[in-house]
Design goal:
The structure holds 2 protein chains of 2 kinds. By secondary structure, chain A is an alpha+beta fold. Chain A has 24 helices and 22 strands. In chain A, the strands form 5 sheets. In chain A, strands 14-18-19-17-16-15 form a 6-stranded mixed β-sheet. In chain A, strands 6-8-9-11-10 form a 5-stranded mixed β-sheet. In chain A, β8 and β9 form a beta hairpin. In chain A, α2 runs antiparallel to α3, α3 runs antiparallel to α4 and α3 packs parallel to α5. The radius of gyration of chain A is 35 Å and the shape is elongated. Chain A starts with a helix and ends in a 7-residue tail after the last strand. About 11% of the residues of chain A have low confidence. A 6-stranded mixed β-sheet of chain B has the order 8-1-2-13-12-9. A 5-stranded mixed β-sheet of chain B has the order 3-6-7-5-4. A two-stranded antiparallel sheet of chain B has the order 10-11. In chain B, β4 and β5 form a beta hairpin. The relative contact order of chain B is 0.22. The chains are: A alpha+beta, B mainly beta. The interface between A and B is medium-sized, with 29 and 24 residues. Chain A: Pfam families: CheW (PF01584), H-kinase_dim (PF02895), HATPase_c (PF02518), Hpt (PF01627), P2 (PF07194). Chain A: Its EC number is 2.7.13.3. Chain A: It comes from Paenibacillus tianjinensis.
């Protein structure tokens, strides 16, 4: 079967599942005791595994399978989540993500994940590295199951030790029953029965009782004392039907003592009778970070799944086709309206008018289809902030609001990187270290607010931290030192103006630029990116209270307001966002300075450029006119006046590109289709200001 | 026996040219063209083809043949090559023929003044009809034009 047709669906769904896995894991980290989240995670992982296996991406499927094994233990209360497990699971998610990325790029989704797989397997076996507080975990967990367990372990240990000394074989046997086995408890009993005939089972995991009640997952391990050697036992068990795999390892004194320790941890965790929450010992044993998160993490939204999605997926290209067809329809509508007004037939006019209204509504809907909630960008941030905070040894609470705010798809695609930059900035430089926070009387956990909201024709995205804020004086000093402004200029700067200097190219106030970010480094890039999207970014800061980066974005990029102008027989559109004003100048007002034509504009001189000359318009030359219509456009602080023949008026235009054959034309940023079906070129004002 | 291919036949001056039918999207009558300044002289501008803006090339200009007035017969052939959509202005287009690949010969050095690199081959139809098969990738290749212009400049 050809799977390629399902590939894009697979990629989309995998990304969805990975996203929800990431979110749920974050939720679980905040509420480690909430088994319902584990269920959600398990289901997602399971679906992902199934999909990957069906598509033939074995590596992906097997890694997910290992994750499932761990999650299965957790949801059955056989394993308690802890830092090390979280880290490993997050690492697995990262690996899965890069595999899916590889597949998206046309690869096979292969990756070397042996390290992660062995960590996951170690977790399933109950081995947790001592560094992750395993020792505390073991004692804490063991305490919950009562002293009997520990003494039993000591007893078993001494039995095994003695057996070894007496020359018996001590084996560690791992048995896996085939997954399609109907009565696994019976199978397990047969294994025990067989073993009892030629030796003694000292200890099994899960316990014999649990195995009898089918409370195990297709596999069990046991310590066994016998006279026979390992390979023989292995062969004997394999002779039973429906046994998948058997490994028997002969133990010596040293490996025994090592195994015994792990076993004690494993058996303790295996006991479902001990509810972990009631354990008084578990609280101090729980990692401090997650304990802190528990307090404010309760409110964190957790997708519990279940609610069926009421959306369908549509290729963005199909939407573009729909838009194109739609503009065709609009052109025909204009023609029809013209004809109807000529024919003067009442019924016809009425029908055409009705059609006009319907198509107007339709246009709105088509536009709305392109709107995507900012959630699609925001959803990767909690994970990023978590990792960042961890690596910087800070405590940070990311509060996301307004994730449902919608933006045009084209804006969404572009806005991710600048936001990542601002967020990193807030985490790295905005929020102070725990010591500094405590010293200044704040709580040890910093808060970073990420909010999005509508306002008028714009969407605002704000990133606000409650950190130390920015000192204007420090910025001014740094700007002077870097030669961005002079001492005299600095004196005239207000505090607010000083802070905006952060966006000046080549600026940085960070005394030590960390590997995460240096405040100021690259902020000019952020600014130019956002400006290129037709937006703006400003920063507010109160020393000691925090900093707020406010990003203003247009609702959509594909439709802009523009001024249509006429030059000879040609029509051009100038984006309204870069127009300062329009006006008329008399030829006598035009001066020549160094061979450049200039006009006086608000007490300064700005250059006057002839569009007809720049674009070599064949049938117009304004030099013969006495008065010239001008459009003053702006790029940053710089202004230039463009001479045109006539203003046609303001219009909302749909931006189209010139096609792949003409990727870049000087002074032209795109094209649009006017109501009469004609193509008008969109002027790129930036081209005139160097 | 090589396979048969379908070819759209069009005329520039007295020469007949062919483009494989799969590469042709549509053939349109002449329509208003919006001039695009600051590009090559043979790029006549852009058209609105059902909501999509498509650049249009005068094929005569591209091949360095004297450009001609547009007539009733003038057509714009919209081709799609390497995901580039481009329109070609041709004198007329009115035929689709089946051609056997075997009947296409390698191009002679010079045919009607057009550089051989733009040609895939020349096919003989019937007794005295010659069909020049275009190599669209080369026709749309712009890097070579830049070189030419810098040489001339």
């Amino acid at each position: 079967m050809d799977m390629n047709q399902y590939l894009s669906m697979f990629i989309d769904e995998s990304n969805d599942h990975l996203q929800s896995l990431n979110e749920s894991m974050m939720g679980l980290e905040a509420n480690p005791e909430d088994i319902s989240i584990v269920q959600v995670i398990f289901r997602s992982a399971h679906t992902l595994k199934g999909m990957a296996a069906t598509m033939g991406f074995e590596d992906l499927a097997s890694l997910t399978h290992q994750m499932e094994n761990v999650l299965d233990l957790v949801r059955n209360n056989k394993l308690r989540m802890q830092d090390f497990i979280f880290d490993t699971l997050f690492k697995s998610l990262d690996a899965l993500e890069s595999m899916v990325e590889d597949i998206t790029g046309g690869g096979e989704g292969k990756a070397d994940v042996s390290a992660i797989v062995s960590s996951l397997q170690a977790i399933v076996r109950g081995e947790v590295p001592a560094a992750a507080g395993a020792a505390a975990e073991v004692t804490a967990a063991a305490a919950t199951t009562g002293d009997a367990q520990i003494s039993l372990d000591e007893f078993q240990y001494s039995v095994l030790e003695q057996s070894l000394q007496e020359g018996h074989q001590v084996l560690y046997v791992d048995v896996a029953i085939r997954k399609d086995c109907q009565l696994k408890a019976v199978r397990a009993y047969m294994v025990f029965d067989l073993l009892e005939r030629s030796g003694e089972v000292v200890k099994s995991f899960p316990s014999v009782q649990d195995i009898e009640q089918e409370k195990f997952d297709y596999g069990f391990s046991l310590y066994y004392i016998t006279q026979k050697d390992a390979s023989e036992i292995q062969r004997m068990i394999l002779n039973l039907s429906e046994i998948d795999k058997v490994t028997a390892v002969a133990l010596d004194q040293e490996s025994l003592s090592q195994m015994a320790q792990e076993m004690s941890a494993a058996t303790a965790e295996a006991s479902p009778a001990a509810p972990v929450q009631e354990s008084p010992a578990s609280a101090p044993a729980a990692p401090a970070a997650s304990a802190a998160k528990e307090e404010n993490g309760k409110s964190a939204p957790v997708r519990t799944g279940g609610a069926p999605s009421r959306t369908i997926r549509v290729d963005i290209e199909r939407l573009d086709v729909l838009m194109n067809l739609f503009s065709e329809l609009l052109i025909d509508r204009v023609r029809l309206e013209q004809l109807a007004s000529e024919v003067q037939n009442g019924d016809l006019t009425e029908t055409v008018e009705h059609m006009g209204r319907v198509s107007g509504d339709l246009q709105n809907i088509v536009m709305k289809l392109r709107m995507v909630p900012v959630d699609t960008v925001f959803n990767r941030f909690p994970r990023m902030v978590r990792d960042l905070a961890k690596s910087l040894d800070k405590k940070i609470d990311l509060v996301v609001t307004g994730a449902e705010t919608e933006l045009d798809r084209t804006v969404i695609d572009e806005i991710g990187d600048p936001l990542v930059h601002l967020l990193r900035n807030a985490v790295d430089h905005g929020v102070e270290s725990i010591q500094d926070r405590l010293a200044s009387g704040k709580s040890d956990t910093g808060t970073v607010n990420l909010r999005a909201f509508h306002s008028g024709n714009h969407v605002f995205i704000e990133i606000e931290d409650d950190g130390a804020g920015i000192k204007p004086q420090k910025i001014l000093q740094s700007a002077i030192k870097k030669g961005i402004i002079t001492q005299e200029q600095a004196a005239a700067y207000s505090d607010d103006e000083a802070i905006q200097l952060l966006f000046a190219p080549g600026f940085s106030t960070a005394e030590v630029i960390s590997d995460v970010s240096g405040r100021g480094v690259g902020l000019d890039v952020v600014k130019s990116k956002i400006t290129s999207l037709g937006g703006n970014v400003v920063v507010y800061s109160t020393p000691g209270k925090g900093t707020n980066f406010s990003v203003q974005l247009p609702l959509t990029l594909s439709i802009i307001a523009a001024m249509l102008v006429k030059i000879g027989s040609e029509k051009y559109a100038i984006p309204l966002s870069s127009i300062v004003e329009t006006g008329i100048v008399k030829n006598t007002q035009i001066r020549t300075i160094h061979g450049n034509r200039m006009i006086e504009f608000r007490n300064s001189h700005i250059p006057l450029l002839s569009l007809s000359k720049f674009y070599a318009v064949p049938d117009f030359d304004e030099s013969t006119e006495e008065e010239t219509e001008i459009v003053v456009v702006r790029k940053g602080e710089r202004l230039v006046a463009l001479a045109v023949q006539d203003f046609i008026g303001q219009n909302d235009i749909v931006i189209k590109n010139l096609g792949k054959y003409l990727p870049e034309v000087q002074g032209i940023s795109g094209a649009t289709i006017l109501g009469d079906g004609q193509v008008a070129l969109i002027i790129d004002p930036n081209a005139f200001i160097k | 026996m090589a396979e048969d291919i379908k070819v759209i036949v069009f005329k520039l001056g007295s020469e007949e040219y062919g483009i494989e039918v799969e590469k042709v999207q549509t053939i349109e009558r002449m329509m208003p063209i919006t001039r695009v300044p600051k590009t090559y002289s043979f790029i006549k501008g852009v058209i609105n083809l059902r909501g999509v803006v498509i650049p249009v090339i005068d094929l005569r200009g591209r091949f360095g043949i004297q450009e001609a007035e547009h007539t009733d017969q003038t057509r714009i052939i919209i081709v799609n090559v390497n995901e580039m959509e481009v329109g070609f202005i041709v004198d007329s287009a009115n035929d689709v023929i089946d051609l056997n690949r075997d009947s296409i010969d390698t191009p002679p050095d010079v045919v009607g003044g057009i550089k051989a690199k733009y040609l895939d081959g020349v096919a003989k139809i019937g007794e005295d009809r010659l069909l020049i098969m275009l190599n669209l990738t080369e026709v749309l290749n712009k890097s070579e034009i830049v070189q030419l212009e810098s040489l001339e400049g």
